[in-house]
């Protein structure tokens, strides 16, 4: 959800997964479709504005094995309503990445997570607030951890390196038998794996 130009969707589609990329920007979805044709992957696209909850329920008719919300929830008007609307359509997992609230000890020293001080962000999260949000929306939190400034961009491509047997790793993520890649650098985002 919030697929934009298909950065992650196309990686899954190129490996044979059935992928539907949702976004509210038609031009970005057309870009994703064009990239999909050149990559040989099968990618479906559909318009969806996450700020219109009724639209989520209507457009997500059906069920998805996994849903990815990377750098999306912080832009929505009501993040809890979005997750609640998505929940009935998820069979296995929801993968989330959101910008992390700057910890108090860093704020006091004038150190901020500059990469995520985005004027379009309506909110920031820490591990506790993201877990609380997920539980209120009816999800079980399977895994939660802070990641560095490059996540999810850093760990997603690692899934697709030939030496990592991508289908096996992706399958393990979907079925909960492995953990996200942990980066011990400067953590400024929070990633979560949820189950309905």
Explained architecture:
The protein has helices at 9-13, 26-39, 53-59, 79-86, 104-108, 127-136, 155-159, 166-175, and strands at 19-23, 43-47, 64-70, 90-99, 140-148, 187-195. It is of the alpha/beta class and 196 residues long. Helix 3 (53-59) runs parallel beside helix 4. The chain is globular and about 50 Å long. It starts with 8 loop residues before the first helix and ends with a strand. Mean pLDDT is 76; it is low at 150-155, 157-166 and 173-186.
Strand content: 15-25%
Major beta sheet, specifics? 4 strands, mixed
Distance between the termini: 16 Å
Low-confidence stretches: 150-155, 157-166, 173-186
Mean pLDDT: 76
Total count of strands: 6
Order of helices and strands: HEHEHEHEHHEHHE
Helical content, roughly? 25-40%
Report strand order across the widest sheet: 3-4-6-5
What is the gyration radius calculated from CA atoms? 16 Å
Shape: globular
The secondary-structure class comes to alpha/beta
List the total number of helices. 8
Q: Which features characterize this protein?
A:
4-stranded mixed β-sheet; globular; two-stranded parallel ribbon; alpha/beta; 196 residues; single chain
